[in-house]
Amino acid sequence: MQPPSHFPGDELDRRIVAHLLDHSRATFSDIGADVGLSASAVKRRVDRLRDRGVIRGFTAMVDRGHGSPRTEAYVELYCAERTSRADIRCAMERHPEVAEICVVAGAPSAVVRLCADDLEHLERTLERIRLEPDVLRTRSVIVLSRLIERHTRRDRTRADAPQAGAKR
User: Where would you tag: which of 36, 88, 115, 152 has the fewest CB atoms within 10 A of its CB?
Assistant: First the structure.
């Protein structure tokens, strides 16, 4: 299958990324055996993909309650009318509890995912965020539990999606 038009690499790059998404701790040698390249060729390609921002990093996912923050919330930010995305980003970067910021369609200016140690920590963080000059108000929902978590598979799902008219 050819890589989708939005994937910035060739078929070997796509296969390397797919392998890393399934087995992030695989050695370059293991990946090379899977895709038909030497370990050094895989390393060069991975380095190039990292330099181009296709691969942003490698991480360990720790289960909640085993060292990672246990309280998570999604916060709708409602900002002053002329607040730019850069202003929102700059303001939220000051808060280490901010795990993710998304610009969304609809009424909020952005949606922020917060990770805190407990409810008190979350409350203090929300109070600090509400003091930001461009933040007019917030609306929060607290995550009680996760039913599905696919964060590491998102890009692979898009890269492996069948193309229109393609036969399987």
Answer: 36
